[in-house]
Design a protein that fits this description.
This protein is an all-alpha fold. 85% of the residues lie in helices and 0% in strands.
Length: 351
């Protein structure tokens, strides 16, 4: 009896170890897959704050929350099941879809570069929304636009994640996709919330003459005179708050630049790796050789970082080329064809 109980406990302990090992494997795979999607994540964090611009401070966090919930629905209710079905019935389609997403990223990145060189103003739909004069309708329109944009970025994140675990079991894929989807959403929109409220926090710090009282949680930090500790602490907090207010616009601009570079690097890299899978290895080998040569030209301590930066830079240059060609195709081929189709459809309707 006792020996049977000990054997059962030993089996339970073994099962627990296997389960813990499986959890570790899932987390490790999710970490690796999420790291590959870092470029898209950076761009997501760079793009989203602009959807809360122009609203009252009290509405900023609710807007970000609603966008985050829409992003989570995109990932868990639409993209995750779709990715699993795709992996089951058409795994051969993962690489072409991934490359199509790479082309989209290159297109978006090249569009942003073109906007810097040749500004062409805001999109018509946002102007139309502002023309209504209804804050609630404008807020709903901004959220809907953000969720649509997030859907495209989330699809690319989930596709990159799926490609990273394509050789794993069904449940491993499902677990990794869920962890990456939830984790990236929490990180991105947590960072976005901090970015959006950073200027408000800076203004509060700059105006607070009794930071010690606020820090200690006194009920009325604005009542009474500032003490010695308040004066000593405000010497640090007020300049920091003013610096935060001044720095945030520059930080957002820098984040946008980093996001654009990340889109081009990730998009170009995806296309290069996809071409290698179809036997076109020359471009990939050329990038690797040039990156390795750049690493060898640097001191040993910097060789690894230099090689990575060179590879990412070359992938970004290729991304700019692909994005530029896509812009030309969209504006001079696809766009006219769509307009021609619409005119023909309108003519048939009138007839």
């Amino acid at each position: 009896m006792a020996s049977g109980l000990f054997a059962l406990l030993d089996d339970v302990a073994g099962i627990a170890k296997i389960a813990a090992s499986s959890v570790d494997d899932v987390v490790a795979q999710a970490g690796k897959a999420g790291a590959k999607a870092a470029g898209v994540v950076i761009d997501d964090a760079a793009v989203t704050p602009r959807y809360a611009v122009g609203f009252a401070a009290a509405r900023e966090l609710p807007i970000i929350w609603r966008i985050a919930m829409g992003s989570l629905r995109n990932k868990l209710l639409i993209l995750l099941p779709g990715a699993l079905v795709l992996a089951l019935i058409a795994p051969w389609a993962i690489t072409p879809l991934l490359m199509a997403g790479g082309v989209f990223l290159c297109f978006e990145g090249a569009e942003k570069l073109l906007e810097l060189v040749m500004p062409h103003g805001a999109h018509g739909d946002s102007k139309a929304g502002e023309a209504t004069g209804d804050p609630a309708a404008l807020e709903q329109q901004k959220i809907a636009g953000a969720v649509k944009t997030d859907f495209i970025l989330s699809a690319e994140i989930m596709a990159i994640t799926l490609a990273g675990v394509s050789d794993q079991s069904f449940w491993m894929k499902a677990s990794v996709l869920a962890i990456v989807g939830i984790g990236i959403t929490v990180v991105v929109y947590g960072v976005v919330a901090l970015i959006v409220k950073a200027d408000d926090a800076g203004m509060a710090l700059a105006a607070n003459q009794r930071p010690a009282a606020s820090l200690l949680g006194l009920r009325r930090p604005d009542a009474g005179k500032a003490g010695a500790f308040d004066r000593a602490l405000s010497w640090l907090t007020q300049p920091f708050g003013r610096g935060l207010v001044v720095a945030m616009p520059h930080f957002l601009n820098l984040l946008g630049v980093v996001g654009t570079a990340a889109m081009l690097w990730v998009g170009g890299g995806i296309i290069i790796h996809g071409l290698e899978e179809y036997g076109l290895k020359g471009l990939g080998h050329g990038v690797q050789d040039l990156a390795a040569a750049a690493g060898r030209a640097l001191p040993a301590a910097l060789a690894g970082a230099g090689e990575w930066l060179a590879g990412a830079g070359l992938a970004a240059v290729f991304g700019v080329i692909v994005g530029g060609l896509t812009i030309v195709a969209m504006r001079w081929l696809v766009g006219p064809l769509i307009r021609l189709f619409r005119r023909d459809a309108a003519a048939q309707t009138r007839a």
